[in-house]
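User: what does the whole thing look like in 3D?
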Amino acid sequence: MKVVTFGEIMLRLSTPGFSRFMQADRFDVHYGGGEANVAVSLANFGLQSAFVTRLPENELGQAAVNMLRGHGVDTSHILRGGERIGIYFLETGASQRPSKVIYDRAHSAVSAIDGREVDWDALFRDAGWFHWTGITPALGEPCRQALEMACAAARRAGVTISCDLNYRKKLWSPREAQQVMQPLMSYVDVCIANEEDAQKSLGLTISAGDVHKGQLNMEAYAETARTLKKRYGFKTVAITLRESRSASENGWSALLLDN
Amino acid sequence: MKVVTFGEIMLRLSTPGFSRFMQADRFDVHYGGGEANVAVSLANFGLQSAFVTRLPENELGQAAVNMLRGHGVDTSHILRGGERIGIYFLETGASQRPSKVIYDRAHSAVSAIDGREVDWDALFRDAGWFHWTGITPALGEPCRQALEMACAAARRAGVTISCDLNYRKKLWSPREAQQVMQPLMSYVDVCIANEEDAQKSLGLTISAGDVHKGQLNMEAYAETARTLKKRYGFKTVAITLRESRSASENGWSALLLDN
Amino acid sequence: MKVVTFGEIMLRLSTPGFSRFMQADRFDVHYGGGEANVAVSLANFGLQSAFVTRLPENELGQAAVNMLRGHGVDTSHILRGGERIGIYFLETGASQRPSKVIYDRAHSAVSAIDGREVDWDALFRDAGWFHWTGITPALGEPCRQALEMACAAARRAGVTISCDLNYRKKLWSPREAQQVMQPLMSYVDVCIANEEDAQKSLGLTISAGDVHKGQLNMEAYAETARTLKKRYGFKTVAITLRESRSASENGWSALLLDN
Amino acid sequence: MKVVTFGEIMLRLSTPGFSRFMQADRFDVHYGGGEANVAVSLANFGLQSAFVTRLPENELGQAAVNMLRGHGVDTSHILRGGERIGIYFLETGASQRPSKVIYDRAHSAVSAIDGREVDWDALFRDAGWFHWTGITPALGEPCRQALEMACAAARRAGVTISCDLNYRKKLWSPREAQQVMQPLMSYVDVCIANEEDAQKSLGLTISAGDVHKGQLNMEAYAETARTLKKRYGFKTVAITLRESRSASENGWSALLLDN
Amino acid sequence: MKVVTFGEIMLRLSTPGFSRFMQADRFDVHYGGGEANVAVSLANFGLQSAFVTRLPENELGQAAVNMLRGHGVDTSHILRGGERIGIYFLETGASQRPSKVIYDRAHSAVSAIDGREVDWDALFRDAGWFHWTGITPALGEPCRQALEMACAAARRAGVTISCDLNYRKKLWSPREAQQVMQPLMSYVDVCIANEEDAQKSLGLTISAGDVHKGQLNMEAYAETARTLKKRYGFKTVAITLRESRSASENGWSALLLDN
Amino acid sequence: MKVVTFGEIMLRLSTPGFSRFMQADRFDVHYGGGEANVAVSLANFGLQSAFVTRLPENELGQAAVNMLRGHGVDTSHILRGGERIGIYFLETGASQRPSKVIYDRAHSAVSAIDGREVDWDALFRDAGWFHWTGITPALGEPCRQALEMACAAARRAGVTISCDLNYRKKLWSPREAQQVMQPLMSYVDVCIANEEDAQKSLGLTISAGDVHKGQLNMEAYAETARTLKKRYGFKTVAITLRESRSASENGWSALLLDN
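Assistant: Here's the predicted 3D structure for the full assembly of 1554 residues, as structure tokens:
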């Protein structure tokens, strides 16, 4: 099955080891993003995958394309043009010092994408699944419009649509998010969320323990899933749970509400 | 003597050794710029120097400040604020392959500087020299205005003003450059130029051999210097000459027209 | 136009900088080979290219595939199987010390290729050019047989065939080379050679100055080209000339005898 | 508030990762020391700070100065001269293998400091706090004398004086330490100590559990603080407690006995 | 006391940090092997040690020799010749991803050793201990024969012989292992084993809990030791126990059954 | 033939690439010295060699020993003890910027060597050659005395003695050098020198062109050699000539006066 994802791929510049921004005399270079990483992982696991975005026509845009196709991702629908590739700088935390991220993603090529330049129908012709996250429509109106075209085309082609709500407070407010995300839910078959996402992106409020204290209220999560399913008619709801035991240790679990 | 310089300091991200953008898995990190480098060099040689710019309030802006004051440059007049630090990416050439630069400097903090926020009179009170280059006013109207305030304050304080014309075709056209640069020449005591700068930034045309072929017509250069001095009333004109012998070998010479 | 190349791609492990094998505590990793490099370069220049080889089913084989498709080379006809990827170790020379290469390529996956497992006809259906070098048949009888199948299929498909004679004394003697290479010349349209290749691989002897002394006898080279063209009916002969000025400096020139 | 610290800043050469001295082909370079690190941290937190020491007139001394002023520390009172910068070599432990330190600090510039060359009164004029540790007087008689001049000047200027006892067995015996440290306590307002420091540097003995076993006897610590406060008239006593859970994990806590 | 060990020393190429084979652009270089590591460790602890193997006459073979003698191991009995040094590639695991090893050791120099070329009697003349592991005879008949010569010579010289059974499923089946290992036990004084080794290499079966679950049945281990001692007449049996708590944390314990 | 050399081996810490002391965040680590390098090179060329020095009992001393014996040098006569290993820091020059060296070799272990602790007679029993340089006696009286013991023992054993005068102005004045070196010449069979060495170390003055300008007066060199041979009765005199063409390019030649 071919899986299509759509979003931003950014240049990540991270300080080596635990060194700080102000000490670093080199940055490690990676290209990635939520939706691009899904495409790469699925290709590594042996599935066919395609990634759609817009990248500048310079060597940094090409480097992102090369990374993707090196992993076997179909990059033939990526648009080229625009001003720059989005960048974020990462400093890994240590003991009490938390990790820091500096975003420098404004004016990126994908934020000015014209969705009409992508041949969505051709893209979904042999696809079985379309995956996107809440980051994509948060990048601005051009991305939101392109995403809606993608969803409509995916529905026409009968492919399953999954969405990871993935609320990002640096990109928009809960109010802005809900205005954009709620209408888009009508396209979604599989919804991936956690409690905060459901609250900020869709306005759902259910008390579910204190996540920061690592205490998970399973019943509240199940109730969140049931409510989401009922309100938006999702076929499947997946809730991922991360316990923060310490800066370098997390517990992972997940809850799947299927038909 | 304290020397003041004003301009943009950028984050330079360069591929290690001769590796290409598309191969690099890390970038070497430096902070620099024409005017900042002059301030650092003079401090290394034992003079007092101060650098004026505007940098974002994040750690990358702070890293640039720390680099400067580490070398002993006075950074107390640097403004903090704005969106981002300008970036450029550098890939060093090898044999027939030329070096490549990708600029990502639009929307930088300094490009939106408000010159009224700098206390120019305090800055020049104990200064003997003010140095700027043609890059600074090419960064846009806010920079041009700030530069004019700086020149006016420097003149009021009686400090010598030097300008390296430094024409950059990626930033403006000759026509735009001349409209901005010609009026600013009235402030300049010492003008640093090469033939191309004089032509593109000030509209001066004197034939001086084929620089690309490494052939230098000394008399034509001397004539350029005399014409510049006469037309703009400079006290001193310095012309720097670089012969391109090969990708990794250059010949350097210079001509000084004083008095 | 799509260009197909066929040969071995090896893991190159080189000491960093000018360090010696006995000092190195790390090796730089690259994947390459004469024919693979041509496919990568053509893809970088914007042509379509495909590379055929056999690689083991482990991660090192996959890394070679990923590098190729990252550059846009079609790897869909690469066979997977066999014992190991060929390796060579490289130590770069400095001043009087020459570079050293340790080959560890015996028993490589491609050396046991079964040419019948490649669908040559499908491969050449939309191709315009097939390129190989004298290294491929020197890897042993299975490679020679596969190469002959490739040449026959290319001819059936009407694609141009080019061969870089590329004599390698570590792989075979001149006598062995000539027995294999001479019959294969009947498939070749474009022959790339230098004086030594023509002599060792095809038995041609024409005096052409002392290459080691950097003195090039142009007329002798032209005579070599004319003789090759006449004897084997090549459409085109290209002779590449490298002058060894010093360990780190070479002069490059070339001679093309076209129709 | 400006904080002044006085002590030795050393060149730290550490093996990368967990590699051992005998394997390392490079050392990571840092400049630091107990008192210098306090000055740097306070500057990072936004306070004004100044550091006093003596460094050789070579580039290694200058590199230490540049590091300090890069972080915003006032280095204008640092003396230059003497033979060498103190060095220590560090190999980080792993699993059962403990970390190792090789000190090479004898004959360092600061160990021959002439305290009369520092203008202590000017230094403390606008300062609010003076911090030193038990390492400084342990570096020999010149350092002890300079420290006493510093304490006297600080008292004259009415600045608060804090001392971290910081007993170092590689530098002196408990008996030597007590002869030097006890008289200096008359200058101290704020004393920072742990049980071992109080015992070795000041001769105080109070049983407080087995620190190596990570068992902390809170009452004994409180008694230590009360006894120190009473005996030396400190305004404040701070006791820092480190539990050694394993080679890479520690528990930190602290106890403050204030007025 | 001089300790002699005999086996294969390989070139280990490992990806830096936690990077994967497909991402690595360099490999860290080490030379090691079970028996070589014992010789190096004993030399580090101050004993005399000698290592016997066969290495190719190239620089990689020499680098292995240099590493050994750098640590003080006697390498004067190492044979030189053969095709290649055995290689293995290592990728260190992280969280759920396990470590991966790719062996490329076929056709190594030592696998074709002729035991008659080693002067075993001279080697053991001043030795007190001979140590080998089950890896050595698993490398093929030439190694098995050389090992038997070594054991016979060691016995003639009256030196203690220890064997770490060390069953490796990538090298042979339990059946092949038992046919070779059982007869060799007659030479062994000190046997080092774990439960799996005893079962696979010698055919011993005693239930001893589920090692993978980290549960150790001490009594079953003691019984294994007693049975081994009785069946083969060992003077001493050592059983090493490793509990796998997680990918990066192990518990180590051991059991010694001595006279 | 076994060659013995005696001198200091130092820890060299060099900045990577062309980076400056003040920029370097790591130093490359090497162990070497004039006499140690001769021993290593001869061992690499297949001769037997032994090196005598004194090194501290810490891991840095051991690392130097390991490096030497890794290359096959006999280190069994090296004394262990003393305060520290001598260090020098190296910054490689680039274009107009010259290389810089910071010596930190005072108080090194070898500078306090007691020559009576070396069993010189045993050392020279099977040796054919003893080599030393003018650096060794310049390290102070203990080294001078040890060197004289070495020369006397070498003469008793009938081994050839060579000396590279190697005048170092950072270690002593010409006057000091001549007082020490002239008497030692009575032991020397083979003298290696250049014009400056002969002048500074032995007081010989013969005009021989301007070496800095790269102009070599061959006849003056020959005269230097003849004079040295006559005055001190050397069997052989070797003069090495280095022309400084530029910072990174030198011309090498040599003159041998034998018999």
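In plain terms: The two ends of chain B are 21 Å apart (CA to CA). Residues 210-214 of chain B have pLDDT under 50 and may be disordered.
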